[in-house]
Amino acid sequence: MNIEQYYDTWASTYDTVENRTRDLDAIAVRSTFANARFSTILEAGCGTGKNTSFWLEICDRAIALDFSSEMLAEAQKKLNSPNLEFQVADISKPWEIGDRTVDLVTFNLVLEHIQDLKPIFREASRVLKPSGKLFVCELHPTRQYLGGRAEIKTTSNTLQIPSYVHPISDFIESAEECGFSLERLKEWWSDRDRNKPPRLLSLLWTKS
Ligand SMILES: C[S@@+](CC[C@H](N)C(=O)[O-])C[C@H]1O[C@@H](n2cnc3c(N)ncnc32)[C@H](O)[C@@H]1O
Q: Which has more pLDDT, 156 or 205?
């Protein structure tokens, strides 16, 4: 199976199975952007729309991309707004989005499936307006080194989705090479894993 097919398989249960990483990411997004307002937000790898609903609350127009038609179908069941456009798109290919048209580009729990960050960050830079923001919130690399990765739990077994580890330096250096200045780096723990390595890493940059 390819990654897209794994997510097609996961789509119908993604929102309901216990998943602390998914839930902590929702908290990280809402707390990071609690007082923010944007004109246009582009969400790359929107999945079932867990965060899309929040992005819609803080912007005038949201564009949500994903290559899994089943994940997108789940998002579309929940979200219907004239301010929201869904696109079936592979974010590792050139994006069908105009230059300098977006104020925030966000990636949540998606870059572990992308081998090379630079082409992706280059696209983010291309579509962002000057001083636009780039936000990334991903499974912490330390967790990945310890074996953590996106996985589908079924009643009979667990399917691990192919993924890549990006050390913190890879995020920072790739973004810097694509013209971003780091504003904030945060590590996130859920209440139940305080004594363990951080679960999530979030980074916020400004396009310089
Ligand atoms: C773990 S889910 C996260 C979904 C959502 N961002 C969230 O935080 O709940 C990862 C999503 O990224 C999508 N994805 C992975 N690689 C992708 C790619 N190359 N292009 C577009 N979407 C991709 C998957 O289809 C899936 O919906």
A: 205
